[in-house]
Write a structure and sequence with these properties.
Radius of gyration: 19 Å
Distance between the termini: 43 Å
Number of strands: 13
Length: about 270
């Protein structure tokens, strides 16, 4: 796989592990979350399928199955033909006009990034943080793990200023390829992160620093610890999606930009189609 495929495959795999519900359509599969992270997206069932094949389900009717409050990610890059891209949906101009018609609001943008794992450098990082992996026994969190899980959720909520759904995070413990990480500074939990390990690719997600510790270089230390931790996970690539604020940090560590993902908020149900 090329870096673009690695990034998107890892991201979509994680979204499905978050518990996305799927609806089969003509040649397409509509995925959406009923709670956080509130994503919704379409995937083709075959390379030749497109939105144009939905003769019995016009795009308006498809979108009507999306609950208000969902977030629609779109990669508006005409040079790409991958999931989430307008080319991949084969419906570029119509989808753009549809977003405008139903007043979808662009709420934020992320930059997809990729880095080849450099064992000689990345495995040698050392910081004053301690790292802890939240473990499950028989896919169930034990008492100590439950406490760690609550701490992980508290830090994540505080760092990103939204509320994750505890049951969604709890459900991730069923996947051995998911690593929920807590970071400690002098025995105090200060940061959290989530790794999704798939096909020799590590996806780095939900890197959050406790509000009281922000602006002190903790984010860079967390990333260095993640890179060092990754040396034990049999990987050759690392991928992530960066906010504008986090972009310089990731570039400093050798991550390269791939594409932009625009996120549209579906504030209300589209008008009735007659």
């Amino acid at each position: 796989m090329n870096p673009i495929e690695q990034n998107l495959n890892n991201l979509l795999d994680l979204w499905k592990k978050y518990g996305a519900v799927s609806h089969s359509l003509a040649g397409m599969e509509l995925y959406q979350h009923v709670t956080w992270p509130n994503r919704v997206w379409l995937e083709r069932k075959s390379n030749t399928a497109s939105i144009n094949d939905l003769h019995s389900n016009p795009l308006e009717k498809v979108i009507q199955q999306i609950a208000p409050g969902r977030i629609l990610p779109i990669i508006d890059d005409k040079s790409l033909d991958q999931p989430l891209t307008l080319n991949w949906l084969n419906h570029t101009s119509y989808l753009n006009s549809f977003l405008d018609k139903h007043q979808y609001t662009s709420i934020f943008q992320l930059t997809a990034m990729h880095k080849k794992f450099n064992a000689a450098q990345d495995s040698e990082y050392k910081t004053d943080l301690a790292i802890e992996v939240i473990q499950a026994v028989n896919k169930q969190a034990q008492p100590d793990s439950q406490k760690q899980l609550r701490t992980w959720i508290e830090i994540t909520n505080e760092a990103f200023q939204y509320q994750v759904t505890p049951n969604v995070i709890q459900g991730l413990l069923a996947y051995p390829e998911i690593k929920l990480l807590l970071f400690y500074h002098h025995s105090t939990p200060v940061a959290s992160a989530l790794l999704n390990v798939s096909q020799n690719t590590i996806g780095i997600h939900q890197v959050g620093v406790k509000k009281s510790m922000q602006g002190q270089g903790i984010g860079l230390k967390v990333m260095k610890e993640i890179l060092q931790f990754s040396a034990n996970l049999n990987t050759d690539s690392l991928v992530l999606q960066a906010s504008k604020a986090g972009l310089p940090l990731y570039q400093k560590l050798g991550f390269n930009e791939l594409f932009q993902i625009n996120h549209y908020w579906i504030a209300k149900q589209p008008d009735e189609v007659v």
